[in-house]
Amino acid sequence: MTAFLALMTSLPTGNSTIRMRVWRALRNTGCGVLRDGVYVLPVESPRRAALAEAESEIKAAGGFAMTVEMNLKTSAQLEHVRKLFDRSTEYGALVARIHTAKASLQRLGKRKADTLVKRLRRTFEELSEIDFYPGQAQLQAKDAMAALEREAHRLRYPSEPHPSKRKIRRLDPAKYRNRIWATRKDLWVDRLASAWLIQRFIDRKPKFVWIDRPRDRPKGSIGFDFDGAQFTHVDGRVTYEVLLMSFGLDNDPALASIGHAVHFLDVGGIPVADAKGLETMLRGIKSKARGDDEMAVEAAKVFDFFYSAYAREKTDNASAPAPLSIPAGRQGRGSSRRSR
User: Fold this and answer.
1) Closest by alpha carbon to 249, among 197, 203, 177?
2) Percentage of the chain surpassing pLDDT 90?
3) Mean pLDDT throughout 230-242?
4) Per-residue pLDDT tens for 2-12?
């Protein structure tokens, strides 16, 4: 960007209220201060309308304001103006807050910890929105935020699998048909989505087993979403995403869109617009379902609907897939039911 908008102002000296209100509004837009009373924004900034609003408010209060376009002619001028938008100090302060929060999560308790993590996530997003020239400082803050959210999730769900460092290998789906698939009981989003994906795209006639502990897994079964399972969290990916990559399904945009929502709901990270709706529907099912068998069957319908909607968005005249039901499993050690 070499073009900028500059708001030149002269505020009434006796009106401190309007002065403070305008200053706060301009600060929230991410304006750089070229000199006293001169505020600049990249011309492509989505918040440029705030300059016009500030101009109108200043004039209405009896002050002077004018917005002009400023085209820079030299690289030295561009470098000087871009430095006005350097957010390194702000990111550094945020990273320090994140590290302090991470050290205190365990003693805060669930509710306070959740509130703190959400507040810091919101702060990071607000800062990122006005970071017009993102660089290493933003990446460091992003990594620190992700680490905080992983730690909060680990403390909240101690039985959840720990991320593995192993490589994800491409597998032949033909070797994973008519198999027994085992995962932890009390199903929730990642296990529900993974079970749906397995039945829908990998193994049309699976048997599912919901187990209390990993050692209860039936001999010869394929485990998913627990420590030591063949399919579980790897690096920053949840089990559903690992299954997508393992079976070459990650090039399906509709499946990937579901994965974004599942990832956010399971381990946090960048918010996803449809995640809240998916979570609400699954919570409703969980409140009514009589055990994991029914939970899996009803959740499968939800994922079918999401898949149909995403497929229609991604491709012209896409036909919606026929709904499939997840085969019922059995609670407890080594029990299962073959899908019909």
Assistant:
1) 197
2) 56
3) 94
4) 689 999 998 87
* CA neighbor of 253 nearest in space, from 310, 207, 181, 302: 310
Does residue 331 contact residue 210 with C-beta atoms inside 8 Å? Answer: yes
Residue 339 is classified by DSSP as -
Alpha-carbon distance of 91 to 136, in angstroms, equals 10
* CA-wise closest residue to 47 among 170, 129, 115: 129
Beta carbons within 8 Å of 137's beta carbon, 6+ residues apart:
87, 88, 91, 92
Q: Are 69 and 43 in contact (CB under 8 A)?
A: yes
Query: With contact defined as beta carbons under 8 Å apart, do 198 and 307 qualify?
Result: no
Q: Is the pLDDT of residue 332 over 90?
A: no
Which tokens sit at 324?
A: 């499939």
Contact, 226 vs 185, CB < 8 A?
A: no
